Amino acid sequence: MKRAFFVASLVWLWLWISPAEGQTKRKVVFGVPVTPPNVVHIPPYVAKDMGFFAENNIDAEFVTFEGGTQTLRGSVAGGLDITGTSSDPAIIAAARGAGTKVLGTYSHKLSQSMLVQGDIKSCKDLKGRKIGIQEVGGFNEVMSRAVMATCGLTPKDVQYVNVSTKGRVPGLLTNQIDASVLHVDQALVAKKKKPDLNILVNLWEPLPKWLYATYIAPEKEIAGNRQLYVDIMSALVKTNRFMYKDKAKAVEIAAKYTQQDPEVVAQTYDILAAAGAWPVNDGLPREMVEWTINRQVELGTIKAEEKPSYEKLIDLSVVQAALSKAGGRLTGDKRWD
Q: In 3-state terms, what secondary structure has residue 28?
């Protein structure tokens, strides 16, 4: 009798201290915006490989797209539980009542540059040249528009050439395009292969408060599965914090999924980590978000009367709950204080 009681007690204790193993994993379909990802896009992959999703009873399935605008369309159409996209289509969607909400961000700070052919020395030299973009309204087109606005040019003054994210570097190397907005790792690879390419502008210089990226989800799904979204965001917050602590593992996973030279990945990691590109808190300060929305109006991507409020665009309560679950806000570092 005593033995049976002892065994039963052990079983009860195991179940009590190991709830994750006793629960069915919740399937989450996660839209990721670039195929293959760049280093800046890597947090969801790290979350899966390091078990941060699993410890929250989440089984994440990645569905890849060619750009944030396409992932947004996938979210609006249904079938995606959460999606990574740049802020531009997310703001446009909120402005037009698409029924999505921003829950967080995989990288709130701009870290991209416009790379150009060697004979382009200034913004005005872009006139009449071929600029590689994904599509009008997508991140690199909006950023190209913002660069041109600094010298009085508009999209009518240049030729847009549609190229995928993966195709931008080859396009510059073969002179298919004259300029394009590139991620850090792309710029490093392109400059190494063609040293006379110029960095015309680092985007964070003319756009210091621009919100780069977001995670979005359908409002109806958030309302019906709020705890699931809190758990997803908690896993992603913990992932970003882990990436700052363990460079070697972060670089290993990033090299695996980006399919890039580990040396380039390590260089890119150092640049992004030094800038605090991956947020360890919510990454959605009101000033930054509202500044970005106002610039979207100035650039003509949304109309002034469509401009969404901070509250219409973002459901901050989810990531706030996720931060509590992840141990609270981090302070004490100038990158995120």
A: strand
According to the model, what pLDDT value does residue 72 have?
58
CA separation for the pair 241, 44 (Å, rounded): 13
Query: 3-state class of 62 per DSSP?
Result: strand
Q: Tokens standing for 255?
A: 């090299």
pTM for the whole structure = 0.87
Count other C-beta atoms under 10 Å from residue 11's C-beta.
9
Instruction: List, edge to edge, every strand of the sheet that includes 26-32.
Output: 58-64, 26-32, 82-86, 213-218, 100-104
Whether the CB-CB separation of 185 and 268 falls below 8 Å is answered with yes
Q: Give tens-digit pLDDT for 17-76.
A: 444 445 688 999 999 988 899 999 999 999 999 999 999 999 999 998 665 465 556 555
CA-based Rg of the chain, rounded to a whole angstrom?
A: 21
Question: And the tokens for 242?
Answer: 């882990």
Higher pLDDT, 206 or 172: 172
Please give the single-letter amino acid code of residue 265: V
Domains of the chain plus CATH, in order, are: 26-109+209-326 (3.40.190.10), 112-202 (3.40.190.10)
Q: Would you give the end-to-end CA distance of the chain in angstroms?
A: 59
* Residue 317: closest CA among 107, 27, 96, 101: 101
Contact 212, 146 (CB under 8 A): no
Q: Which positions ≥6 away from 112 have C-beta within 8 Å?
A: 140, 143, 181, 182, 183, 184, 202, 203, 212
Distance CA 75, CA 137 (A): 17
